[in-house]
User: Fold these one by one.
Assistant:
Number 1:
Amino acid sequence: MLLQMKKTVIIFIVILISFCSCFKRQEKQFSYDLIPVEINGKWGFIDQKGTFVINPQFNLAYLFSNELALTQDKRGKMGYIDVSGKYKIAPVYKYATNFSEGLAFVTPENNVPTCIDTTGKVIFQLYDADFVESFSEGMALFMSQGKYGFVNKKGEIAIPPQFESALQFSDGLAAVAVEVGQNFSVIKWGFIDKNGKFRVSPQFDEVHSFNEEKAFVKEHHNKKWGVIDTKGSLVILSQFDDATVFNENIAAIRLGDSWGFINEEGKIIVNPMFHAVLPYNGGIAAVYHEPLRWNFINKAGTFVFERHFQATSGFFGNHALIAQNNKIGLIDKKGEIVVKPQFNNTFSYYLPNEKLFLNEELFTFVYNDYFDAKLIADIFFMDMGTVSFRGLNERTTYETISERMEFGDLQEKSRYSVFCDDPIELVAGVASISSISFEFQTPIYKMEPEYYYGRQIGENKIFIPTAQLESVQFTLELNDDHAAAGKEKMFHDALLIALNERLSFLVWEEFPLENKTVATSERLRFTIKLEENGSIILAEFINPSYFTD
C-alpha cells in the first residue's frame, strides 16, 4: 500500500532548482502573488485565495519574475505573459529561461542562445555556447566545447570557458572545478571572483554555493562536509555526511541517514531525526518524518501545528503548497487550509527520495539549437567526381578497400558483400557515418577448399582480392544531442541539394511513400532514403559495358 501511495505522489512535478544552491536567489527573484497550477491537462494561475486569475490554457507555466511568466503553448513554443495573461513576448522559442535581473535567454528554432530584455529586444547572442544559464549577480554560466565560463550582461566573455564544471555566482564568488595533479589528475573544487581569480584554491571534493557568506565543502581526508567563509577559512569543522546551504543563519545537515539543523556556529539546534527537510523560511521549515508525512517546525525544533501532509513546497511568504489525497492546495502559517486541495500539479514539490524535474531546461537554462545541415551535407559530398564517389568507382577492388584505414575492419555480410562498422565522424559530436557496406560485381570468395587463390579467412572461405565494386551504401546518423535532435528531414533535404550542386544533368525520381529519392547521372546512381536518425545513401557505379550491345 505504501509503495503504491509513493508512486501516486510522483505526479506532483518538481520544477524549481535544487534549494541546495539557489534557494535565496529564487526567493528574491520570483513573485508568489500568482501561482501556476494545472487542472485537466492545462496550466493557469490562481491567486492565494485559490481563484483563477488567468484561466488554464497553457501546456506549461511557471512563476512570475520581472512581471513576466514563462509559458508554453500547445505547439510547444515558449513565450512570456503579463499578469493579465496576454503574451508580452510571443511564444516563438524552442527553449527559454525565466527572467532574472531583467534579462532572459531564449533559443529560437535552429538558432543560438539569445539574450533578450523584458520587451523582447535582442541584447546579444552566444554562438559558441552549448548551453547557458540565467543571470546571477550579473554573470551567466555557460558551457562551450565541454568547458565552463561566464558571460556578463553586455555579452562579453568575462571569464573564458576553462573549467571542468561550475556553479553560478553567489556572494560574489562562483564554485569551479579544475583538474589538479600530473600523473594522476583528479577534479578539485575551489571558488573564483568575477575577474576569474581564485579566492579559494581548488582543494575540495565537492562544494555548495555560498549563501550568507558561508559555503559547505567536502574535504578529501575524511569525506565529511564542513563550512568555509569567503576567505577559504574553515569556520565549522568537517563532520557532516551531507548538507545544504545557510538560510536565515540555519543550515540543514545530515548525520547517517537523518537530517537536522545547525546554526551559524555549527551547533546542532534541531537533532537529526528526519528523513528529509527543506530550508527555513520565515522561521519555519518543512520536515519529513514518517512515510508520506510532512509537517513544519520552528527554530526550536517544535512542531508549529498538528496537521501533516502528503507533500509540501515549504513556505513562501505566508503560504505553502501542500498535497492531500494526491491533490494540491494552500495552507497558511497556522496550518489552516486556505485553498482546498484540488489541483494536479504546481510549480514546486519536494518529495522524499524522489526529486523530479519537469523539463527543467525550459525554465533555468537553454541549449544551442543551431544545426548547419548544409555544412554536413557538403562535407559528405565533398570527395566526388563524375565517375567516382568518396574515392571509389566500379574498378575499385576488394583488396583496395580492405587496405584503406578509414574503413576499419571489414566483416562478411553475404556471399557478394562485406560490411564495415567503424563509425567515421563528419562533424564531431553532431553527425557520423555509422556504417558502410560494399556490394561487388562478382563473388568475393570461393567456398571450395581446393581453390587456394585469394586470402584465406576460414577453413572453406577464401577471399578473392580482385573482386570489383558495384555499389556502396552509407548509413548517416545524427547524434542524439539538442542541436541535431529532430533535424533528420532538414539534413535529408540538404543532402539532396548538395548532390544536385555537385553533379549536373541528374534525373530525379521521387518515391514519397518510401521516403526516398533516386538521382541518376551518366555513371552514378544515388538513392537517398530518409531514416529515423538520419539518412541511408546508396551509391551505384554504372559500368559503361552495361550499355553496350
Note: The chain has two domains: 2-367, 373-547.
Number 2:
Amino acid sequence: MTPDNSNTHSSGITRRDIIKGMATVPVLGAFWASAAAKQSYDGSVKEEILNELNIKASLPPPTGSMAGTPLRVGIIGFGIRGEQLVRASGFATPEWLTRMQEAAQKNSNDTRLKDFLEQESLNIQYTGVCDLFDIRAEKALEAVKTDQNNPKRYRTYQEMLASPDIDAVIIATPDHWHAPMAIAAAQAGKHVYVEKCMTHKIQETYDLYDAVTQSDIVFQVGHQHRQTQSFLTAQDAIQKNVLGHVSLIQACTNRNSDNGAWQYNIHEAASPSTIDWQQFLGDAPNIPFNKEHFFRWRKWWAYGTGLSGDLLTHDYDRINCLLEMGIPKYVTASGGVYTHRDGREVPDVFQVTMEYPDYSTGSTQDQGKEKGMTFLYSASLGNQYSRPTLLMGHDATMELGNSLTIYADPRSTRYQTMLEEETVDPNVPLYAYSPGQKGVDGVTSATAKYFADKGLLYTYRDGKRVDSTYLHIREWLSCIRNGGQPSCGIKEGFEEAISAHMATLSYKTGQRVEWDAKTRRIVNVEDPMVAAT
C-alpha cells in the first residue's frame, strides 16, 4: 500500500511541500514561482534516477591510426552488399555519386553525399575485384580505380588469393561460398572480412574456426551494429544490472516489399555469356543456367541460409554482444511460405525459440530464485509493422534500436521504493538515450528504416552521424595495422553461425535441436542436414 507521504523523495522534496510553499507567494508571482519550483523538483528527481542507474553513454575504444603503407584489399562479390561495403570503405560508383548529388539538390537536409565525402580515408587500395557477372565486375573496377591504382579483375577467387598483390579480402558472396573462400584466404595468409551468415553448413563452421585460429590473420564478421553507440550504452546498463534478471527477449523482423523478400532485380544483360554459372554453383546441385537463382539466391537453401542466416543472425548477434549468452541449449523453429508463393524454398514467416536454461544476467531477488532465459525471434516478410526488440527483466524492460529506452517494471525489487514514492512511473521511461538528435538519416523506405532500427545503417560520434559499416571495416583494418582483436571475430562468428544453423535444422526436421556446450556439438540431430539437397 502506498503511504501518505508517497510523494516524498530521498532528497526530502515533496509535491505537498511545493504546494504549501506556494501559499506564501504573492498572487502575481505564484505562476512563475510554481514553474520554478516544479523545474527544480523535476531536476532533483531526474538526478536521483540517473544516480541510481549510473548508466554511461559509452563510446567504443578508439581504433588505431590508418597511416602507413596502404593495405591492398580484394573484393569478392560486388552485388548489393559488396557495393555497400566498398562504398563504406571509401569507394563509390559514379552512378551512386550522381544519385546522391541529385538527392541533395532536391533536399538540402539530405547529407548522405556530404557525409561520404567527409569520411576519413582508410588508406587502402582495392588492387583486385572478383565477380562472376561481367557487368558487376566492370562496375567494381570503375568504383575502385584511382590515378594511383589500377586494379585487376580476377576470374576466380583462387587466383586472387594466390596473388602477392592482395593483403586482405572482403567476402560478400552468396552464403554457400563464405566458408570455402574464407578458409582458403586464411590458409593463404590473407586477412578476412566476411558477411553473415558466416557459414552455410554446420561442419564448415568448425572447419573455418580451425582455419582462422590456426592462422595469424585478422578475421571479422560483418555485424556492424557492434559499432552502434546505443548498443554499447545498453551493454553498460546490462553490466550494472539495471534490468535485473532477464528471462525473456523478443526480437522481430517485419518487411513487406519485394526487395525485403529478396525479389531483387534481374539485370537485363544477364546470360550464360556474361555469368560464370558453373563457378557460381560450386557444391550446389548442378542445374541449368537460371537467372533467378543467380540474382535471388537467398530464396533457395542450396545457396542461402534463409531468414535464419540473413536476418535472425543480426538480432542474435545484437543480443549476444550485450549478454554474451553464446549458443543456446535448445532451439525450436517453425514457419512456412505464406506470402510469397513464387517457387522459393525458404520460409517467409518464421518463428524461433532459443532456450538458455542456465543463463542469468544477475538478480535483485533471493539467490537461486531466478535462472534461465528464452530468446524469441519472430519474422514476417508480408507485414512491416514495427515491433521493437525487448529485453524483459524482473526490474525493467529495455526497448533497443538505434536508440534505447528503459521502463521500470511495476513489480520491480530494485526500484520498489522509488515506485512507491512515485519517483519512478512504470509508464514513463526510466531512462531514454538517443545518441543523435540532429541530421538526416537518409532513411527513404520501410526496409531502410528496419535496418536503421537494428543499428545497421549508422550511429553517432560526438553528435555526428557516421556509417556503422565504415566503423566496422575501420576496426578490422586497425587490427591488421595496429594489433588487437576485432569485436566480431571467429568466436562470435562461430556462435552466430551455429545458433542460426540450429534454427534451420529444427525447421527442416521438425525437431527440437539440442546443443552440448561441453562437446561443442549438436547431440540429437545429424550435423550435415543443415543444407538442403
Note: The mean pLDDT is 87.
Number 3:
Amino acid sequence: MMTPQSSNVQVMSYSPVYPILIGKEHNPALRVNIVSKQRHSDSLRNITLDFSGSDDVSAIKTAKLFYSGGGESFTATNLVGSTDKISALTTIKLSKPVVPSQGNNYFWLTVSVRNDANTLHDVTVNASQIKLGNETLAVTALNETAHNRIGHALRQAKDDGVNTYRIPGLETTNKGTLLAIYDVRHDSSVDLQGDIDVGMSRSTDGGQTWQPMKIIMDMGEWGGLPQDQNGVGDPSILVDRLTNTIWVAALWAHGHPGKRSWYGSKQGMTPVETGQLILTKSEDDGLTWSAPINITKQVKDPQWRLLLDGPGKGISLNDGTLVFPVQYKDENKLAHSTLISSKDHGKTWTIGTSAKTDTTEAQVVQLSDGSLMLNMRDNRGQRHWQKNGTGARALATTSDLGQTWQIHPTSNKALPEPVCSASLISHQMHSQPSLLLFSNPASQYSRRNMTIKVSQDDGMSWPVEHFTLIDEGLGYGYSSLTSINEQIIGILYESSQSHMTFQRFKLSELMKHK
C-alpha cells in the first residue's frame, strides 16, 4: 500500500527542460529529492518511473539513477541503479543502497536514446513512487512535466580531439540540405587568437542524421607563423537562392600571439596589421569548398581597428542581393553594427554605415515591405556575469542596404538578453504572411533559458503564448535558426548539454497550435 507522504520524509520531483540528445550517454531528465527530517534507518530500494507521455518509449535505451547527496546539481559520479528494460512504467532497483541523511537527498535520473530516435519526438518522465525500506511513498511533482525534444549532440567537448566547439551557424540549401558551421577551437575555449578552424556538419535528411565533420576554412601556417597565429572563426553562412551558391564568411587573425583579436587587431589593411574578412564558397551543395577569398580591401576602412561578420547567418534578398551582417571597431575603439551586400552574386561587396554604436553580433532579416531589420547585441546592457542585467536587443531598419538607418520602435525593449549573440530569421509560407522567429537566452541576467519566439507582425510584438523554452540550463548561449521546410524549424545552439546541439520543432508547436 502506498503512503502519500511520511511524517518524517517528503519526496518531491522536478522536471527540467533540457534537450535529450542522441550521442550523449547521460541526459538529465528528472530530479528527485528525498527530504528527511532526521537520518533515516532504511535505504532507498527502488523508484518507479512513468514514461507513458513520451512519443516513443522504445527510443529510450537506458535509464540511470545517480545520487548527488545534498547538492542539487547533476554529476555522473555516483551511479546507484540502472535499467535497459524501458516500458511505460519502469522500476529501477538500486544496486547501491542509499540511506537518506537528514535534510536534502538529491537523485538524478538520466536517459540515453537510440541513434535512430526520431528528432521530432520528445521524452517525458515522472516519478510515481519510491520504496524506502518497507514503505512505499508517493512523489509530489513540483512543476509540470517537461516534454523534452530529442536532438543531436552534434559536437561535444573532445570530439575528434578538439577542446571546444563554439559559434553556430545553420542554413538550409535549395536542395533541402542542412549545413551546420561552427568554430573548431583545437586547444582551448578562448576566442581568436588561437588554433581555430571553421568546421561543418551536413545533413541530407532534414537533420535526422548527420555526416562526419569537415574542416572548410583553415589558414594553416600562412606567412611562416604557426597555426595558433592563423586562426579563423566566428563564421556566418548564407545561400544565394538564385545561383545555389553557399557562402561562409569568417574572421582570419594573423599574428598577435597571446592577445584576443578584438584587442590585438590594429588599424590598417594587411593581415599583419588587422583582422581579415574572408569568404569561402561551395557550388555543389556543401560537398567541396573554395580556397579563401579575402574581401577586406573592398569593405574595410583603413582607420578601423577590426572588421568581421556578425556570426550566424546572412540572407539572400528577394531581388538576389546577398547580405551579411557585420561589425567593426572604429579608430576610437568603439564598436558598430552594419551590413555588407553584393548585387553581383558575391563578386564584389559594399558596406553600409553604422546602425548603432556600441553594438556587435547582429543578425539581419528582410521584412514584408522589403526593408531590412538589423537585430544587434547591445553592449550597454549589463554583462551576463554581473547578474543584474538591463539588456535587450537593439533594432534598426534600412531601405537602402544600410546607407541610412531608422531605430525600430521596439529597440532595447522587446527582446531581453544577457548581452549575448542571438538568431533572427524570416519564415516564408505559401499564401500566408511571413513570420519572424527569434532565439536567445531569454534572460537579462545569465545565459540560460534558451527560448524560441515567434512574431506575426514583423517584430512589432512577440506574444508570450508563442514563446517555447527549449533549454533552461546555463550555456554559452549562441544560436542559429533555419527553416527546414514550411512546417519544421531547426536550431543549432550552444546548450547546457553539449557544445553544438541540434533540435527541430514543428511550427505548429512553436505557435502553440494543437
Note: The chain has a mean pLDDT of 95.
